[in-house]
Amino acid sequence: MRLTFCAALALAAAMPAIAAVPDPVVNGRIIDAGMNHGDVMETVAYLTDRIGGRMTNSPQMRAAENWTRQRFAEYGLSNARLEPFEFGQGWSIDSSQVRMTAPRVLTLRSIPVAWTPGTGGAVTAPIVVAPLRRDRDFAKWRGKLAGKIVLVSMPGEADEPKDAAFERYDSPAITKLDVFDQPKTSAADLAKTIRRDGFGARRDAFLAAEGAKAWVSKSYRDGGLISGEGEGYAAGDARRVPGIQMAAEDYRRLARLAKGSEPVALEIDTRVTFHSADTRANNVIADLPGRDPKAGYVMAGAHLDSWVGADGATDNAAGSAVVMEAARILAGLGVKPKRAIRFALWSGEEQGLYGSIAYLVQHLVTRAPITDPALAKVNPYYTWPTRYPITPKSEFNELAAYFNLDNGSGKIRGIYAEGNPAVAATFTQWLAPFAGMGADAVVSSRTTGTDHVFMQSVGLPGFQFIQDPLDYETRTHHSDVDTFDHLKAADLRQASVIMASFLWNAANADAPLPRPPLPTRPKETDPFAYVDDEE
Amino acid sequence: MRLTFCAALALAAAMPAIAAVPDPVVNGRIIDAGMNHGDVMETVAYLTDRIGGRMTNSPQMRAAENWTRQRFAEYGLSNARLEPFEFGQGWSIDSSQVRMTAPRVLTLRSIPVAWTPGTGGAVTAPIVVAPLRRDRDFAKWRGKLAGKIVLVSMPGEADEPKDAAFERYDSPAITKLDVFDQPKTSAADLAKTIRRDGFGARRDAFLAAEGAKAWVSKSYRDGGLISGEGEGYAAGDARRVPGIQMAAEDYRRLARLAKGSEPVALEIDTRVTFHSADTRANNVIADLPGRDPKAGYVMAGAHLDSWVGADGATDNAAGSAVVMEAARILAGLGVKPKRAIRFALWSGEEQGLYGSIAYLVQHLVTRAPITDPALAKVNPYYTWPTRYPITPKSEFNELAAYFNLDNGSGKIRGIYAEGNPAVAATFTQWLAPFAGMGADAVVSSRTTGTDHVFMQSVGLPGFQFIQDPLDYETRTHHSDVDTFDHLKAADLRQASVIMASFLWNAANADAPLPRPPLPTRPKETDPFAYVDDEE
What we know:
Two copies of one chain form a homodimer.
Chain A: H1 5-12, H2 24-36, H3 40-51, H4 59-74, E1 78-86, E2 90-102, E3 106-107, E4 110-112, E5 123-129, H5 137-141, E6 149-151, H6 171-176, H7 187-197, H8 199-210, E7 214-218, E8 243-246, H9 248-257, E9 265-275, E10 280-288, E11 297-303, H10 313-333, E12 340-346, H11 354-364, E13 365-367, H12 380-383, E14 390-392, E15 399-404, E16 412-416, H13 424-431, E17 441-443, H14 453-457, E18 462-467, H15 472-476, H16 489-508
Parallel strand pairs in A: 5-6, 6-7, 7-8, 11-12, 11-15, 15-18, 16-17
Antiparallel strand pairs in A: 1-10, 2-3, 2-9, 4-8, 5-9, 10-12, 13-14, 16-18
Protein name (chains A, B): Carboxypeptidase Q
Region (Disordered) (chains A, B): 511-535
GO biological process, one term (chains A, B): proteolysis
């Protein structure tokens, strides 16, 4: 067993017993249902192979919402439902073909950038390499881009990967995760981030005003991988100039040829569809009722939406299928827990946690409104956590625990206490039966970028599990090889069993997990800093 | 300095001085010309970005032949020429698009397999996963493939790369290369290899007879990489059924969907051109004359042809550009060496060393004719080295040394003695000035699979350099990311300088490099083996 900071704390201190020791009979039934009779791979195969990439409000995401809702109902859960929230129009790719036509003919690997218009037919134009990375770059290129296809990224150089693409954590690597990150608050940093987030829209406006025919960005990964993820999103954005993301190797070839004396031209034929009939996205929610209506509920969640480069397998059909499998396993126990158990598949995560914010607003809290009109259109990912005071709704005290899964297909190795060390003793107890499956660490660190973080931002007990990294960051995350075959069946079965067990324990614990105080606006953490406004 | 087996031998033994110590003045001029005034990157940029993939006898290879011949002439070499040899028709891709059309629509990453016909328009058909890996698999699928697109590979599972994709050798890794591999001769192994080599043609005949519409193989690498290299080649092969190679992730998705109840269909639209007006391929040869016509010549070579997945950068525009750069540097010295120096850019290497075999036959040796008619159509890569006796031509004794470069873009770390330890003392001397550039090892090992091997097979002194691996095997070799940006300028400049220096030393050495005796048919090396005919 790994003796991390928090685990050591748990062993050393005589903390009040807030949780029963895990029930070994129920745990045994959970393991049997997940390992010997598991359905997680069939679930994830349907989401990935059969439905494919699930951009929020695309037809594929609609299919996934309906299919998962129906599956929850078939598992025997109560009130399997779609909970709509306003998001904006959907977007999907119909076809895409990009060729260099001069100085020679060559098909290039690329993908339309999300929420940009298609060319709607073959558009051929000379290229210009005009790196546009910040607002001050616009002046240099003004008057030079009309009728051109604009390459907006710096070409850079090929990478030299010195680490293995596929990794499982060893003990020292997990120990390194055990860091209590002190919170950091900086109004200047936030302003800079917000400004940078809006750059994609400003560049689009610049390119449209200049009469550029299309723009091309370079994939941030080598080896031919592409993702097509958008560059900043705010609901209702209407980009005007077609954009494509190109494989780094193909992009750099164009940039080198552009240094020569011969004209270089591209033919872009991208066809996409915007879906505006219904601009509401849906969270998929279902409940396993508890036996004590006053005891509140516990919850598991994962985002169902994805980017469109491939099938959104490791990000995050994997997590969605684990949540669904935990639901199937627990519903199959035929025993009511003390608290209700709620299962959530979020939408709009990839554009800024839209779905989980919507759930918070609909169920749990209100935060102060935006008063600065300049911030009204900024992505809520940046503004939502800055709005004080937080006003709890009546359901606020009912949510006893939230567990999130969104780091690929790797098996669970433990759990992040997410800066709330008071939960470590309990989690250490809950993990005890799973040491032999490789899951025994409780670490202090906070994790970011997915749907538990805004639970935390309002003082709710939201957590994410530690997962083996596998090739998530190096290869599959948002890329065109995020496919089923990069999932690991043994890992997803293990994760499903541990998720189910954690939910069962949390639902039956004597007391809810300890919470921090209701957050109020924090002090600036670096009041003596000078702001360097050079980007 | 690394003390390898052969280097130690060289230091320990008082061998006769067959070579002058490298001339430091000339070496200095070579280094200046290559490092301060180098042209290797401009050369390789033209071959890759501007010309692109150079399949033997394709229009791109014709352009490369003419351009490189002209460059040799511009460097001031004598008699820059094309030396034709019979190869077979050329083949090039005009366009290629492959989509899954059922159960959903999705563009798939694939490439036509070399020397197979195109579909010549959109062909849509249901798929069948029918792994056809050996002749005995045919029986299982007979009568079941008519009108189908046949997936002929086993889907397998995604890889889990545990080593870094990019590597430079450290000292222990180079020491491991120092192995005297005893020759191995086995008529049974050879027969098996030949039989396996012909399998592609037999599978094509089977699929044609069954009425299959097309076939699909799986790329042997993950991460979306594809190559399209052929599966066995013999000049004049006329494949009948269109074949494509598909990215592993896309192939496996099809194979999984085929396990379901819904029909799975592909639409394949591949257009290729066979070029049969001139079936002769060309080696590009040029000479730097020596001052002693009786002293013979030394030679550098690299293959100019490539596969067609990308631009054939690391395989082998890199080696070709280094040979050209050595020519440019040495011609620029304005000093005649004792022996002539010949530069060769081979064609047909990727299909079985056709170009270097042709040079041997045209200039250096004859080998006994094929008597078994069953072997007449077998790829000469397998049969040529088995034909005894070897009869030297008059030019045989003139070739004093041959140096090959064909292992990617990595800098030179030393040289393989290729099972001829008698040369180690000389090579150690020649490398001495380059230790600071990382090139100081002489190792015993033989290397295979490129154009020096059949020089060796007839007893000529043919060698290849040790190069840093970089990402050649893991990523670029034959793949669709074999592009200029995976080349390393510093490495190619270093290799050019060392190649030029080696040629200069070999051309001015007192005596030619020591040779082994003229080979005669070797004994079977494992006369007591039983043959397991289970494949």
